[in-house]
Specification:
The complex is a heterodimer of chains A (407) and B (386). Chain A is an all-alpha fold. In chain A, 77% of the residues lie in helices and 0% in strands. In chain A, α11 (269-295) packs across α13 (311-326). The radius of gyration of chain A is 25 Å and the shape is globular. Chain B folds into 3 domains: 12-48; 77-171 and 252-381, MetI-like fold (Orthogonal Bundle), CATH 1.10.3720.10; 173-236. In chain B, the strands form 3 sheets. Chain B has a 3-stranded antiparallel beta sheet. The longest helix of chain B is centred in the first third of the chain and has 34 residues, at 77-110. Classes of the chains: A mainly alpha (407), B mainly alpha (386).
Chain lengths: 407, 386
């Protein structure tokens, strides 16, 4: 950029009017001060040894060291699985011709796009690796990257050919089984009551997301049902749950869920948390999906009836897919807030999740009374932030790609 | 009729009318059976452990003290719950007002033509929105109030108006009849409204500028001053007196921290709603305002914001509900709201299930009333289609 263009830009964006100039000076100095304080905290005054010493506690809690290898294997396998899935999806998109031709093939533009999407996450992972004192995490991340890359390369070969119904079913089942198998691989060694740290937050969120989705769809359909009693039950449930604070529900579940089931079944604290998160989020999901159902034009349902689909197929093939697509951003927003809310499990139920760990470690003997809570909370905030921020960015991208609200 | 004409009747197991009722009865039976099963388990478990299932615990003495409240320990649990309810309302009202103001300002700032202002607002929203509220609450209490704020001996006293220390924040307050002051404020607000209406009519008739803000403001101030002296109200300013602050009113550290966290967090969500609503206002409206040479402020205040808020009321109402429910997090930092009172009562031996159920019912009632108010506001603001 030439000097003249810089000056034009500055005059246009910073000093348009006298008021503008004053605001620029005031807020410019405030932001410089804020940036200075932040950098000063991060690089000069912050004492980050507490993070280095407790990195394992923050990430995986009191997970027994003997079984950490299983976690590493799981991460690598899931990375490969995700790569494979991405490859298959892409090949399918190419096959059906739904892809922008500019996006085909390997180009600098796509690499830039990919870097733009994930560089922040990459920086955080690198930071975590640099904080770790053992070679294990490095090896794990390296292997995971290689696995994801190989999966991405292999995926198109599986996705491109037509397999027929049986082949497709087998492929779907195998792909869906991989995370389940990995779950049992990990959980047979250490039951998830002993999980902790950031891993527990992710686990609670993922479990609740998977469980709350079908329940939310069912509740939304029930609320729009033509059967008055079903509608009444669903509406009551949704409105009651939405009126109650999650924190109180967690407290109630912690001290009283045991009363409502036979005394032989005593659900563990993690299970209770998952139950509450699922039941709570399902009510909100139901409202979002209901909005989506209402946004589908009535003609779609009439057309489905006209071609003679059964009521179940009218909903399942015609209305629901469009409804769910229309509200993807809101759904992901709700899932982000579920992910953030997993931090309540520590405060309300004493689960050893990230916020609880960050709250506790400054009271360790070695660090007691040094006021290190700012450091640990900043670290916890960074981890929560990067996941939530990446999710919301990806949701915006998905929204754009699916053309919601464009056609 | 059709049967009489010879068409075979649909057998009842394929008759839609019958099927609909069968499905409903099955669903209701399943739900009722499930609830009965839960309730049966509860009664059985409670009986076995000898825990009462009724609300009798409300009459037992609370046996705990609510910070910043004169309620004695021997007062019944119901009184303590009532004080907790009032505390919840306090934080909710204060939080809603502050979050709306901050959120609106940040939302407008995100669309500012000034690069730095827009950038700062964006960074604020993106940083705050993606971090759990629980973390803010903990940080506001343990890091800001207990860590950054000075000990009371060397408290900060900006302009001599406030005393800020880790024991809380003392602000100027009034002495005298609270009811009188409330009445004065109500009358003054009414005077503002009447004068503004009158100025509007004058402007319509004569074509002069209405200046309703100026005239109404003067009316407000006049009524306030008259009422202030008529009721003999006096202002007190906080001051440092050795180991504590005297005068004014001292805001509890936990209240202040919860307020800070709730406002910062909720404002980031409200800002996004405000931004979206402003962008939803047809561009021609702003251009028309430019064309008749309104200033930037006038364009926002008279043209864009009124239309934007019409779109924004329902989602902002949702944020108010979230704020009220989120205020229960105050229990984590020792703010005696409804949740913490219940939690403490349960810790002191009140039965958990009835106590928490009662609390939840109260929260649901607050939510319902709030959404009722929001709905009324929405209906009054809604565009009358022509």
């Amino acid at each position: 950029m030439s000097a003249a263009r810089v000056i034009t830009w500055v005059r246009r964006n910073l000093f348009r009017t006298p008021t503008d100039a004053v605001m620029t000076v005031v807020f410019g100095s405030i932001s410089i001060w804020a940036i200075y304080r932040t950098l000063n905290f991060v690089f000069v005054t912050g004492r980050w040894e507490i993070i280095e010493v407790n990195l394992k506690l923050l990430m995986i809690g009191r997970y027994p060291s003997a079984h950490v290898l299983r976690l590493a294997v799981t991460v690598v396998v899931l990375a490969g699985w995700a790569g494979l899935l991405a490859g298959i999806v892409r090949a399918r998109q190419i096959r059906s011709g739904r892809l922008d031709p500019r996006n085909l093939g390997f180009s600098a533009r796509r690499v830039r796009d990919l870097i733009g999407r994930f560089w922040l996450g990459g920086v955080v992972v690198l930071l975590l690796l640099l904080l770790s004192s053992t070679p294990g995490p490095w090896q794990m991340v390296g292997a995971a990257c290689v696995a994801a890359f190989i999966g991405r390369l292999v995926g198109p070969f599986i996705g491109r050919p037509h397999f027929g119904l049986l082949g497709n079913t087998i492929m779907t089942v195998v792909l869906a089984a991989i995370p389940v198998v990995m779950y049992f691989y990990v959980v047979t060694a250490v039951g998830f009551d002993d999980w902790g740290g950031f891993m527990l937050n992710l686990f609670l969120a993922v479990c609740s997301i998977i469980l709350c989705f079908p329940l939310g769809v069912a509740l939304a359909l029930g609320r729009r049902s033509s059967l008055p009693l079903v509608r009444m039950i669903c509406t009551t449930y949704i409105e009651l749950v939405r009126g109650a604070p999650l924190y109180v529900l967690l407290l109630l579940a912690n001290s009283a869920l045991g009363f409502f089931v036979p005394s032989s079944v005593a659900p563990s604290t993690s299970t209770r948390a998952i139950v509450v998160f699922t039941l709570f989020t399902a009510a909100y999901m139901a409202e979002i999906i209901r909005g989506g159902l209402q946004s589908v034009p009535g003609g779609q349902l009439e057309a489905a009836k006209a071609v003679g689909l059964s009521p179940a197929r009218q909903t399942g093939y015609i209305v629901l897919p469009q409804a769910l697509r229309n509200v993807i951003p809101a759904q992901i927003g709700q899932l982000i807030s579920l992910f953030k809310d997993t931090s309540l499990a520590g405060i309300a139920m004493g689960l050893f999740e990230l916020l609880n760990v960050a709250d506790t470690i400054p009271t360790q003997e070695q660090f007691r009374g040094q006021g290190l809570l700012a450091e640990t909370l900043t670290f916890a905030a960074l981890l929560f932030w990067i996941v939530a921020y990446t999710m919301s960015r990806e949701s915006q991208r998905l929204e754009k790609r699916l053309g919601v609200g464009v056609r | 009729m059709t049967a009489a004409l010879g068409t075979p009747r649909v057998p009842f197991w394929r008759d839609v009318r019958v099927l609909k009722w069968v499905v409903q009865i099955v669903v209701v039976a399943a739900v009722v059976a499930f609830i009965l099963w839960l309730y049966g388990n509860y009664v059985e478990n409670a009986e076995r452990q000898n825990i009462p299932t009724g609300l009798e615990f409300l009459d037992n003495p609370a046996a705990f003290q609510i910070t910043g409240n004169p309620l004695s320990q021997s007062a019944p649990v119901s009184d303590a719950l009532y004080q907790g309810f009032l505390n919840t309302l306090r934080i909710a009202v204060a939080g809603i007002i502050a979050a709306t103001l901050l959120g609106t300002i940040v939302g407008i700032a995100r669309l500012s033509k000034n690069w730095i202002v827009a950038r700062m607002a964006t960074v604020y929203v993106e940083l705050v929105r993606n971090v759990p509220l629980a973390l803010f609450v903990t940080a506001a209490f343990s890091v800001v109030v207990l860590g950054v704020f000075p000990a009371v001996q060397e408290a900060w006293t900006p302009l001599g108006l406030m005393v800020i220390s880790n024991r809380g924040v003392a602000v100027p307050w009034f002495e005298g009849s609270g009811r009188g002051l409330l009445l004065t404020i109500a009358v003054a607000a009414l005077a503002w409204w009447v004068v503004a209406k009158w100025r509007g009519r004058v402007a319509d008739r004569t074509g002069h500028l209405p200046r309703s803000g100026l005239w109404g403001g003067i009316a407000f101030v006049v009524v306030m001053v008259v009422g202030w002296f008529a009721f003999g109200t006096e202002a007190t300013f906080p001051d440092l007196d050795g180991r504590s602050s005297v005068g004014g009113i001292r805001i509890d550290p936990s209240f202040f921290a919860l307020f800070l966290a709730l406002v910062i967090y909720t404002a980031s969500h409200i800002a996004e709603i405000v931004r979206g609503s402003i962008q939803a206002v047809a561009r021609g409206q702003a251009e028309a305002a430019d064309a008749i040479a309104l200033s930037g402020f006038q364009k926002m205040w008279y043209v864009v914001l009124p239309q934007a808020f019409r779109v924004a009321i329902p989602p902002i109402g949702n944020q108010y509900l979230n704020l009220i429910k989120n205020s229960s997090l105050g229990a984590a930092i020792g703010y005696y709201d409804l949740t913490l009172v219940t939690k403490t009562a349960v810790g002191n031996g009140a039965p958990a299930v009835p106590a928490f159920t009662l609390t939840m019912v109260i929260y649901i009632a607050i939510s319902l009333v709030t959404s009722l108010i929001v709905n009324i506001a929405n209906r009054r603001m809604a565009l009358v289609e022509r």
